[in-house]
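Read as chain and fold; for instance:
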Amino acid sequence: MKSGRIDVLGHTGNPNYPFDMRKVLQCAKDLNIVVEVNNTSLTGKSRKGSDTRCDEIVRLGNEIGVYFTTGSDAHFCEEISKLDKAIDLLTKHQVPEERIVSTSSSRFLNFLRLRGKATIQEFEHLY
């Protein structure tokens, strides 16, 4: 994570890969790395236990102050853009909208700036 080449941690809820949540989430906060909350992990259709781990990650991540993003992680075309469970989980833990980088173009682009990415000229009006 300290290499600077990681912008987003995805699939952190997968129970097949245990890690020290507090340590990793604190590092993510310190380095402004986003933590993904994906809808498929919360449906119970894949990786048993992902939903409860995601709940703990969002609870602890919110306490620490990490940035979050949402994703559908669609495995089937009908699931593309479905974010209801991810949004419900972020709402349950009262994650402030300003720490969910996928809620607006401006928020996302400014997060990229925070990560040291160059301004994208074509989107200058959206910052």
About this structure: The radius of gyration is 15 Å.
